[in-house]
Amino acid sequence: MSDQRAHAMNVVNELWASSVVAAAVASALTDSAARTPAEALTIDDERGALLRTVPELESALASLWDDRSAVGSALVSVLSQGAAAAAGTTRAWSDLSDDAMRAQGEASALVAKLIVSRIAPAYGFLRSDSEARVLDVGTGVGAIATALAEAVPSAVITGIDIDSHPLAIAESRLGELGGVGGRVRLRHQDVLDLEEIGAYDLAWLPVPFIPDPIIDQALTKVITALRPGGLLVLGTISGAQDRRLRTANAWLAAVAGGSTLTTDDVIDRVNQRGFLRLKLFETVPGGPILVAAIRPSSDADAA
Ligand SMILES: C[S@@+](CC[C@H](N)C(=O)[O-])C[C@H]1O[C@@H](n2cnc3c(N)ncnc32)[C@H](O)[C@@H]1O
User: 253 pLDDT exceeds 70?
Assistant: First the structure.
């Protein structure tokens, strides 16, 4: 075998094994039969044998264990998106299978958890004593909207999406939620067609899912819909310190027709618009970084 051929074999073998290891880690993290990291390594002999080829995986699983559902769902989601990108079957977000959409939805529910547990409290938002109007742009299968409605009894959430397919899945989820579902309103709408002014206390926009050519217009629409003093939360591509991770996330976003702007690009835009008290929040390893900031109440505030 030539040296070049041997090198190519090594490269492909390494990538092949790494992608299956990622699937095994996702499987271990989402395995409801595993009550501990040690069990995740022993329940399934073949999976355990594969996972034990990764140095110190048990201690890594142990440190992720409290967040295993969120990290596992995020890995399932990235594997599904990667498989669709590899097969050339993803031309738009709507081309993903229902399962991939649901997996992405489950992964994105972590955003709702972070908004409720860390982001809103950091700014004094979503307290139970007053109604909060929340805008969820790109609501998809409605995982963020429904998780917010369940966690915050005073919240009324408007979820908009350009695509009727995930919205149909979202509608059926609402039907299963009973009374809570009554506080979620879904609209089949492009973010560029938002016409509301100052109508929301908190607005969520997942930047990597909005195409680059319209992201600035989309930001303007969402900011206009937010009341002065309202809280803007943006999902952004992570990996500032890791070029491979950043370019990997940018490629997946671009393949699905979304924006490749990084966290730093988004911070620049938010600062240019005079937003106040900007803070960053990490999600899961590899996952998006959330950028939060307050819309200035007046031009004087922004100055
Ligand atoms: C990550 S997915 C949805 C995740 C969502 N949290 C869930 O629970 O499924 C992003 C969504 O943004 C939507 N989207 C893309 N461009 C949009 C636009 N211009 N206006 C509104 N929604 C858009 C897509 O159709 C897709 O459903």
Answer: yes
Q: Are residues 221 and 98 in the same domain?
A: yes
* Among candidate residues 87, 119, 134, the one where a domain is terminated: 87
Q: Is a pLDDT exceeding 90 seen at residue 224?
A: yes
Give the mean pLDDT of the chain.
91
Q: Whose CA is nearest to atom 3 of ligand 1?
A: 140
Band (92; pLDDT cuts 50, 70, 90)? low
Rounded CA-CA distance 78/290 in Å is 18
Residue nearest to atom 5 of ligand 1 (CA): 140
Instruction: Measure 281 CA to ligand 1 centroid, in angstroms.
Output: 21
Phi-psi map region of 56: left, alpha, beta (phi>0 left; psi -120 to 50 alpha): left
pLDDT at 125: 95
pLDDT, residue 128, reads 75
Q: How far is residue 159's CA from residue 37's CA, in Å, rounded to a whole number?
A: 37
For 163-178, what is the mean pLDDT?
89
* Co-location of 47 and 99 in the same domain: no
The reply to whether 43 and 80 lie within a common domain is yes
Number of domains in the chain: 2
Mutate-to-test residue for ligand 1 from 78, 93, 290, highest number of ligand atoms within 8 A of CB: 93
Q: What is the largest CA-CA distance in the chain?
A: 72
Domain residue limits at 64: 3-87
pTM (two decimals): 0.89
pLDDT at 302 over 60: no
Question: Are residues 27 and 170 located together in one domain of the fold?
Answer: no
Query: 244 C-alpha vs ligand 1 centroid, how far in Å?
Result: 25
Closest to 155 in 3D by CA, of 193, 126, 179? 126
Last residue of a domain, one of 50, 66, 87: 87
